[in-house]
């Protein structure tokens, strides 16, 4: 688990940040969420290496924003997005449940005080001994998407509740699709849930994930309609499903406009109403990015600014953080982070942005049209906004001898 630290700094603007976030939940758009507390911390502390600073109060207000937008759902935080102890502890205190991918994530949640009944083992790819570990710890809710996994569950978690993940072939609208690796076709889900009952398991429902950073709300409408057909098919076999897991996909504020959380809520609730009438199943959401993404800022430092001669006049800006130390989601330039420097507001020019390692894959943005101030210098700080999700957990421990990304929670 990457290193993280809690620092208690008092800041009189806390309340303002929380209010601001309430407005964000209702508003949508693309303005970043700025934390006075993080800014204050970064202005008053020196770090020699890149660091991720997380404002736990923004996580609190986002959690409340999601609860307001989707009051009928239970939140299962996707721990993989940011496994810092302090983040899990804060969400535990709010009464959040947890979606985990491994025994280590189960331990993190249990150590934070979560009851095993509040943990869902949502990874459909598990070792038999890891299932046995989870079962022994009291976890009773498991995902699967194949017969082979179901057989493992029947052996190592007898009688547990299982839900089947549906394959989403179309992830249009998502910046980080989670399509073909996960899920099975709807007919196969029907067959496998029947098989689960035959194996003595408790087939409780279905799940899907419409793709991470998903801005096409119609994707939830399609997925909910498909899930409803699976419910009906099972009902005809005398099996009554009771759980629909709506997955993640809720957005953070990168470069692109995103709908307001309230809009996600409106579309999702209308779709459930349309498909299930007044007989709603139990609903789960598994936000990762949308819950913690906007709470974090990475502070990095400019190591080098150079050019490649007359063929390409763009400046190359090398930072002390790259693809291997936390910014893996710049792969294919999928996630386009917003950058901030002390020179913002002055004249800018086009740049290629790269990481510090001796690996030529460690280029963050080349095709995307990034511009940075002409006044930017070696040694200047660059803040990378909305980096609370999928950064510290992606950071290599020692690639090229660089330390893993450290997290500071405020
Ligand atoms: N649930 C599951 C099973 C996932 O695999 C993921 C992400 O990989 C999530 C939830 C979180 O998705 P997001 O970060 O888009 O909210």
UniProtKB/TrEMBL annotation:
The modification N6-(pyridoxal phosphate)lysine is found at residue 80. One of its GO terms (biological process) is putrescine biosynthetic process from arginine, via ornithine. Its EC number is 4.1.1.17. InterPro entries: Ala_racemase/Decarboxylase_C, De-COase2_N, De-COase2_pyr-phos_BS, Orn/DAP/Arg_de-COase, Orn_de-COase, PLP-binding_barrel. It comes from the Bacteria. Its cofactor is pyridoxal 5'-phosphate. Pfam families: Orn_Arg_deC_N (PF02784). Pathway: Amine and polyamine biosynthesis; putrescine biosynthesis via L-ornithine pathway; putrescine from L-ornithine: step 1/1. Gene3D superfamilies: Alanine racemase (3.20.20.10), Lyase, Ornithine Decarboxylase, Chain A, domain 1 (2.40.37.10). It catalyses: L-ornithine + H(+) = putrescine + CO2. One of its GO terms (molecular function) is ornithine decarboxylase activity. Residues 59-292 form the Orn/DAP/Arg decarboxylase 2 N-terminal domain. The keyword Lyase applies. Signal peptide: none annotated. Keywords: Lyase, Pyridoxal phosphate. GO terms for cellular component: cytoplasm. Belongs to the Orn/Lys/Arg decarboxylase class-II family. This is ornithine decarboxylase. It comes from Tepidicaulis marinus. The lineage of its organism: Bacteria, Pseudomonadati, Pseudomonadota, Alphaproteobacteria, Hyphomicrobiales.
């Amino acid at each position: 688990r990457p290193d993280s630290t809690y620092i208690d700094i008092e800041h009189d603007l806390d309340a303002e940040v929380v209010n601001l976030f309430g407005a964000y939940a209702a508003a949508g758009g693309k303005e970043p969420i700025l934390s006075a507390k993080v800014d204050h911390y970064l202005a008053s502390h020196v770090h020699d290496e890149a660091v991720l600073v997380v404002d736990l109060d923004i996580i609190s207000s986002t959690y409340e924003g999601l609860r307001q937008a989707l009051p009928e759902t239970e939140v299962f935080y996707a721990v993989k997005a940011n496994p810092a102890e302090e983040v899990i502890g804060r969400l535990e205190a709010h009464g959040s449940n947890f979606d985990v991918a491994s025994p280590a994530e189960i331990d993190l949640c249990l150590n934070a005080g979560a009851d095993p009944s509040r943990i869902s083992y949502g990874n459909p790819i598990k070792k038999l001994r890891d299932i046995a570990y989870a079962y022994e710890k009291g976890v009773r809710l498991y995902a699967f998407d194949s017969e082979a996994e179901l057989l493992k569950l029947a052996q190592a978690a007898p009688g547990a509740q299982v839900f089947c993940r549906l394959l989403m072939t179309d992830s249009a609208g998502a910046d980080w699709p989670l399509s073909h690796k996960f899920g099975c076709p709807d007919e196969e889900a029907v067959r496998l849930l029947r098989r689960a009952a035959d194996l003595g398991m408790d087939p409780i429902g279905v799940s899907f994930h419409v793709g991470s950073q998903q801005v096409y709300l119609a994707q939830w409408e399609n997925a909910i309609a498909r899930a409803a057909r699976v419910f009906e098919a099972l009902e005809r076999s005398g099996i009554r499903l009771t759980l629909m897991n709506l997955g993640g996909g809720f957005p953070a504020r990168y470069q692109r406009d995103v709908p307001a959380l309230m809009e996600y809520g409106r579309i999702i609730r209308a779709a459930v109403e349309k498909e299930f009438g007044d007989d709603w199943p139990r609903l789960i959401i598994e936000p990762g990015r949308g819950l913690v993404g906007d709470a974090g800022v990475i502070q990095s430092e400019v190591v080098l600014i150079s050019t490649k001669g007359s063929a390409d006049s763009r400046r190359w800006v090398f930072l002390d953080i790259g693809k291997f130390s936390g910014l893996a989601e710049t792969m294919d330039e999928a996630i386009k982070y917003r950058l901030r420097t002390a020179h913002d507001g002055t004249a800018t020019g086009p740049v290629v942005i790269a990481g510090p390692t001796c690996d030529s894959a460690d280029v963050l943005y080349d095709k995307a049209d990034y511009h940075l101030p002409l006044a930017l210098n070696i040694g200047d700080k660059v803040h990378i906004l909305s980096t609370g999700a999928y950064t510290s957990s992606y950071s290599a421990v020692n690639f090229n001898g660089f330390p893993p990304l450290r997290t500071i929670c405020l």
